[in-house]
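We emphasize that the prediction below concerns an isolated chain of 405 residues; any contacts that depend on oligomerization or on bound cofactors are therefore not represented. The input was used exactly as deposited, without trimming of termini.
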Amino acid sequence: MTASPPRFLDPTTPPKVVTLVLLAGLSALTMNIFLPSLPGMATWFGVPYALMQQSVPLYLALSAALQIVIGPISDRFGRRKVLLWSLVLFLIATTGTLLAPNATVFLIFRMAQAVIAAGMVLSRAVVRDMVADAEAASMIGYVTMGMSIVPMIGPVIGGYLDDAFGWKANFALLLVLGCGVLVLVWADLGETATIRRVSLGEQIRSYPGLLVSRRFWGYTAAAAFSSGSFFAYLGGAPYVGDKIFGLSSSHVGALFAITALGYASGNFLAGRYSMRIGMNRMVLAGTLVTTGGLGALALVTLAGLSGPTVFFGLTVFMGLGNGLALPNANAGMLSVRPELAGTASGLGGAIMIGGGAALAALAGPLLPPGSTELPLVLLMLGSSAASVIAILLVIRRAQTIGLDT
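Result of the prediction step, given as a token string:
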């Protein structure tokens, strides 16, 4: 633990919480601010939507890979140094997206933007460095609360910027915000880690202890498939809003906030009732809420009664269910081998986001010109149903070995 109390804008002491919130928020904003612009970007570059939509899964895939290595790298070289270099590389990549002459170059620089995932991963690590476990849980809650607001407003801001100034305005805003966060981190975030000369190879060699655990795989699968329905939605909903329902970028961006509002509500309920109801039961409740909501959406769509209000409105249940399930599924991953909690967090997060990247990539080909929204809805429903099966297997395993469910 770091003994020195935080002093704002003093790089010799730990950072203030606001610095960590803004750092994690920039990481979250980078993922989704430009989503309402995807159809317009495809037109700008003269490529099919399915190609431009790959900016979502490619970014998620690289973020997943980075989650495995960022923690060990920061253990060895320090949080401050890794964060500062990550922000510099992020600014270079964002400049590249603005200057890209074609879709291929844009996608390369878009993938490079994933280096900002360090902000999300290391903001939590910094908290763990600073304070004891009980206080860390509270402080991480503040950081997570800040992160949950960003996905709610990001597409709204992106949609209005796109309508007013074009798609490049989204990335120009990320460039400006990135510069501000870089200055703030440099001025406020002192080193909090106790540098450990442990190689990445030594860290990875602890993975088999998790990979042989059926409970770890069960929690990871529940989290991956539950969030997978949301990632598939991220990959396909901009096309549905623009091409199928004929909505403007700003309208699509505003409708994205419905899902995020559900997620924030689910997070609140998880924080209030998880201790009382139990981790496994909360995951089951969340996955059932998501599957029920998406099942209703599938039935309405099959009946030909869907529209923008129904399609986007019913995703509130997907947000609510994920908000209930994911905090508890993530806690379950860490509980399997407490001595490998850091490794479990990185590996489980990588699998979860990697699976999300695959589902987001699949959403594009499922929505060719002239398609309805039904293929996307069925993909989301299938992923959510798989999460129910995964947590039921965890509960069955827990009952078999005598653990509380």
